[in-house]
Structures are given as structure tokens and as C-alpha cells.
Amino acid sequence: METVRFDELELDDRILRAVTDMGFEAASPIQAQAIPVQMDGRDVVGQAQTGTGKTAAFGIPLLQKIDPDCRKLQAIALCPTRELAIQVADEIRKLAKYMHGIKVLPIYGGQDIARQIRGLKDGTQIVIGTPGRVMDHMRRKTIRCDYIHTVVMDEADEMLNMGFLEDMETILSQLPEERQTVMFSATMPAEIQNIARRFQKDPVTVKVVKKELTVPKVTQYYYEVKPKTKVEVMCRLLDMYAPKLSIAFCNTKRQVDELVQELQGRGYFAEGLHGDLKQMQRDRVMNSFRSGTTEILVATDVAARGIDVDNVEAVFNYDIPQDDEYYVHRIGRTGRAGKEGIAFSLVVGREVYKLRDIQRYCKTKIIPQAIPSLDDITAIKAEKIMEQVMDLIRDTDLTKMVNLIERAVLTEECTSLDVAAALLKLSMGEENEDIIDSGRPARSLDDLDRYGRDGGGRGRRDGRGARDAKGSRYGRDSRYDREGREDMARLFVNIGKNQNIRPGDVLGAVAGESGISGKLVGSIDMYDNYTFVEVPREYADAVLRAMKDVKIKGKNVHVEKANGKGR
Ligand code: AMP
Question: What number does CATH give the domain 218-372?
Fold first, then answer.
């Protein structure tokens, strides 16, 4: 697996800076191949799908050709959907961050055409549009083609599936003869090959040539998640499976840093590894991981190369890898030296199709799983503790403890069973409300084929993660220590930012209803759908009583004591 660095691609310095800001560690395989060819001015047929980095693969060379001083339309990229058009425009804008004077405009059906016309007149050089709307503007002459030197067809096979073949042909036939024509498509049906033949000049085909790979024997699960609930799901899996050592893979340096911060903030022993670290820092992180002080190593593919640790019990694909080969390398980090390993992939939206392709190509089985509920975690934790308890009963002398319990049972109103149950609860930490509904299992990857891309549920809402996971807490072990002040009680209010509530509203309600001074109210942590507010412990019950049947900004609220350390 050879890595191509962006600074080896002879890119404009400003793009290089932008790419660094975006946290990209190395060019993805399709970028490494497509960028030089396109920069050479050749027509390109790129066989790649979403998630491979294809947008930057055509976006970077396209940007290099734009003259910012010329306020005419110079490039058009056609996309099948409005979502993709917006996404592509966003990515190109990020890449153009340091190139002043470049204007990128997404145009698609359903949006006010007058607004688009204003945007087009305002010196836009790059249009990212859906075929129907682009044609419309061509007819109105609000898109003029005279200065267009580059056209990109993104997801050409999808445009074909959506009935845009004729529109694509019409648009291509109206563009200047002298131009560069770039086409990206996941598959190459006859109609697409035909377009390439008719509208491209001697195109170079780039695709990632796949090597025969041996997939390690590792149990592989995947979970369909929402971007917002990714960290939460990962934490649940960590709690449920409690791997001693695990590696979590991210696609960018930036994501590595973010995930490490999130995990550390939640009390996990996590450290990051990526190309920005000095050798000394890398050594420190690796030593700490080898010794088990760091339990979760969060890394990019490039940084994780050459890591040689045998007892990694779990691999997390926090981001789905950009290449099938990476997947195999990643999961091969676990299940070594004859030990069992497990790999978890978190997929968001359309990434599920990429995972299907990985499964297909690697001839492996990636099994869909429901996100574990807190009940699942509780049950497993209890089971683990009970196993340890049984070991203790078997292997140690517990006479002193038995005497203590006996005394408690004789002097207090409780049974030894009550004591055992309370101790179990204590050692498990407290369990709280379920933040994510576990829902039903994700679709099997084979079902995606059976029902087709659209029928199978493109854009399906899985109904999970209805609440924000940020700041969510539930029982963890003693590492999970976010205790607030001893003299304060933390209350949970079932209303948050999404209901247009501000901290001041909560403060006003608490002080106003209970009569305690606002000065006595402690921190107010507001999340999307709920809020935590601290009040002096001695007033907690009074505040709760006063807050019964209260409305905040006209909305009924429910206030209760927040359980556990975190809440
Ligand atoms: P795409 O295949 O263009 O839809 O890209 C998928 C995601 O990968 C986007 O979020 C990109 O920003 C990101 N990406 C593109 N190139 C790279 C790279 N070289 N390294 C890491 N992430 C990348």
C-alpha cells in the first residue's frame, strides 16, 4: 500500500494549505491516480464511488485551472442530486479557501431561480448543478458556455439511473469543443461508456486496481448511525465489549484529534496517532498503548502503518475507509497471534453502499447489528461483575465481609439480598436514561442489492439517535468521573436548545418558581434536547416541588434529579 503525499502532487500552495487544514493525511488512492492525469489536461474516466475522495480528485485539478481574475463561468460539474451538488460545492469551496476571488455556486431544481440568476451574474466561475436546472439556465442564457474549459460529470451512472441521459448529452453538446471532460462513475454501464466515446477525447481511465487480499478471520459487525451519535455508539460498544486494547481508525488527522478529545472527555484512556506528531510523541503514545495505559489508540491509516501490537482486541472503523484495501489492513490489526478479534464499522447514510462493496470485494461477511441499548450494557456489565464475584467466593476467604454484612442485616432493615443488590449497583455505576433507541438491526449488506439502491432505503431514516448524544452520560466505571461540587445537586430538565430555550430561561424559571436566589443556581449545561442545572443540595427537593407543572416559554417541562455522576 503505497502512500502519495499531497506535497508530491505539485499542487498550488494554496490548495496544499487547504488540504492540510482539512486534515487529510495523504492522497486517497483514487486521488493519487486521477489528480496528475487531470492536471496534465487529459480527459478522465474515474471509476470510483462516494467515500473514496473522488470529489477532491476532480475538484483539486479543476480549481488549479480556474482564473480568479476572469469573472466568467469556467467550469461546470453535473451531479445527480441537489444534496450532492451542495456537498460537492462545499468541498470545492473548502479546497479553494485560500484562493481568493473564486466563486462556486450550487444550482439545483426547487431553488428560487431568480436567486440563482443573481448568483450566476455575480462572477461565478464554477457551477455545480443538477442537469435539469443547468439546462434551464442554458436555455435562458443565464449560463453562458463560451469560457467553459472544464466539465465534470459526477456519479454519471446515478445521473443515468435518474433519467438525465438526454440532459447530459444536450449539455455536453453545447459546450465549447476545446475543453477537458472528466467523468466519475461507480459503474460503467453501456450508456455511460457511450457518452465517454462520444464526448471525451482519448480519455484515461483511472481506477484503483484491486489486489487479491486475504481477509483475516475477525468477527465483523456494522452499525448504522447518525453523525451526531457516532461517539455515543462507539462508547457503548466500548462499554459493552470492554476490549483491553483497541484501535479506532479515522480518515483525517482532524477527526483523530476530535475523537480523542471526545473519548478523553468521557473518561476513556485514548490517545491519537497521526502524521503531525513528532517522533518523540509517537513513541510516547505507542509505549503507552503497548503497556496498556492507553486503551484506545485513535489513528489514521498512514500513521497506524507499521504498528506492531499483538493483543489488540477490537478495531473500530470510526470512519469507513476510503479504500477496500485499507479495510483489510485495519481489521488485520486485531485477531493476531491466534487471539480472537472483533471489528466494528460505523456507517452513516450512503456509506453503507461502500461497506457493501468492501464486503463484496473482500469476500467477507460484515454483519449488521442493532446499536446496543443501555439495558444490554447493564446486563453485560452485571454478568461480568457476577463472574468476578463468583471467582472471589470460590477463591478467597470472605469471613470478615460476611461478618460485616451479617451485622448490617441484623441492625438495619434489610436482607443480605438487598445488600448484594446494592453492592452490585454500586460497582456498576449508575444507569441512566437511554439516549439512543437501539431500534432494529441495520439492513444486511446483501439486502441492499436485493432492494436496490433507492428501494432499499436511500435516505432512509432509521429513527435512531433521536436525541443528541453530545454530553450524554450513563453508568461507566470509576474512570468516568465528572462529579460536580458535593454541595450541589444536578437536576435534569427535559428541554433544551432545540426548543429555543436559553440558559437564562431555565435560571429564571428555577429562581422564579422556587424563590431561591438566582445567585445560588450553579452551572447550567444546555444540550439540544435537555438541560442540566445545578442547585444547592439542600434546596433540591424544594426546587423539584416548585418546578412541578411549570412551563418554560410556554412549554411544559419535567424536572427530575439527574442520576449518577455525569448527570
Ligand atoms: P468523497 O468520496 O469525495 O465523497 O469524499 C468522502 C470524504 O472523504 C469527504 O468528507 C472528504 O472530505 C474526505 N476526503 C477526501 N479526500 C481525503 C483524503 N485524502 N484524506 C482524508 N479524507 C479525505
Answer: 3.40.50.300
